[in-house]
Amino acid sequence: MPVTIVDEEADVIGPFNRLSASQLNTWNSCPRMWYYEKRLRLKIAQVPKLFMGRAVEDVVCRVLRESPGLVVSGAPEDVYAKGAQGLLALPERLLPATVSELEKWADTRIRVHWPVIFAAIKEEWSSNDRKGGNWLEVNEQWYLEMCDAALRMHISEVSDCLESTEKSVLKEWRSGHRDTIPSPDGRDGLVGNHPLAASGECTLIEAWEIARPWFVDPDAAAFSMNAVHPDFFFQGEYDLVYRWGGRTRVMDLKASMGSGDRSGDYIEQLRLYAMLWWVTHERKEQIDSLEVWYLGAKVRKTIASPSIEEMEQLENHCQQMWDKLRNNEISMEECPPEPLALRGFSAGGVATEPSEGKRCDHCDWAGICPGGSGNDDLQNGGGYTRSGQMVEHQLTPLQDLEPRLTIHAEVFSYSQVGEDRPRISVMQGTDYATVKILSDGDYPEDLAKGDMIRLIDVIPGTNYKGEIELKMDPFARIEKATEAEKGDSSLLGFRARWNVIGRVAYRTHKSGISRNGKAWSRKGLVIFDGNASIKVEGWDNQWPAQYEIIKPGSEVVVINGSLDAWAIDVRIGLEKGSTIHLI
Fold first, then answer.
1. Which CATH code for domain 403-480?
2. Span 71-105, pLDDT tens digits
3. Contact 570, 550 (CB under 8 A)
4. Which residue ranges make up each domain of the chain?
5. pTM of the predicted model, to two decimals?
6. Cα gap 404→383, rounded to integer Å
């Protein structure tokens, strides 16, 4: 079972507050880097290679999900749109008969899927407001070759399976046996014999089906494919888990040469995954083998599996680190800029002499960190008086911003057309507001005019007409309630404008063409103080000319910004009457 079905009632931590291998590796690289990225949630520059690695894995998994017994090599990329159940087994003359023919089938399927995934990932990068690098420098052919390398590594598993599968295992598979959590194969279930079952010796198609690893279904929802520690403090997502042949082996796909410092992180990641498998299988089942597949170098690197004693130590360390980093409000002072020395690796993850230079030389946060050219002299709140003026503006610390409220009100109107989200307006005395439902939120389906309700953790604001809107995101909900509760706000009790100060971590920008054909552009800054960060965003024409000289490390004050939120993201909007000042 490579996936944990989490008991949500028992889970007091939740998917957003668990530790992961990447978090631990970030902490080990530099505690201050961890603080910036995990505590303040600053985002590193989104360069194309980060997206292309995901594209490679997506394409590989889509080919793994398909079967050469059901899909001819040139079939459309969406042939599995309705799953495998509706597809008929191919006649024998259309089946790959040799390993070489199977490799050609896989190569063709890669090139069928690649244009769709490549276009989608390029669009995702293009629309990211933190994108960096140059997409024109992407070597598309190189990443295609990585997909080829991954499928050839898999086909070597299929070939071994063809030669070594025992008759008893083959018979069991032919009768329809599946793992408790089967490898994603496009089937919701299976009753009776497997539709691709043959007779006699194991066929190449059967070996493909039997050897298929568990992998992250590319169409699965976020967090649905994680393995989670029984005590919920640690989670991980395996790339490939091979379970054929009576052994359990975990493989990690890396769309790289393996010649950089991060190859050291991959070793620790797989050791943690071995521990995770062990504790999620009642400490009775150990991983038999760990490998990193460096697709750029076409190398499978074996990692030594940890002993039970080592896994106990890893588990205890994870527990202690979760308590330190996630179960407490760790401060910036507790995360010093003490980077790990760079490690040396050549192609294929082969350890070599340590690299020259310092980790800080390549860090995204060198401009704001004391380890680079920054400092920790950060202002949290206080007052600000603009030069030449007498008025002092009171500044709210970023962690004290309050974008949500709960109100008790009466439903003034309720309507719903088809499957669209309902349209709701509420009133409180003589005051009215529109409820703007932006997600499949938690609200009663039988609301009617005159019902008394509590709108819990909604986000108040005003539209361009000055009318009050109460936005509902995934963190907001509505429940029927005859009486208000202590702490409920009045409809006009929210604060519309806020003043803040912060240091700039980076600038953001996104643009596009609206439905009416007009170009639009939004600029932003992500600012932080010692305890929190927030994005300041506005339309292009709302920013002063100073925006172009603002850089990481600059100090800015925002006066009369409007507060908004989506889930855990809080942001300040520049509206009419808002100003921003570079100190």
1. 2.40.50.140
2. 999 999 999 988 888 899 999 999 999 999 999 99
3. no
4. 14-40+215-374, 45-212, 403-480, 497-582
5. 0.91
6. 24
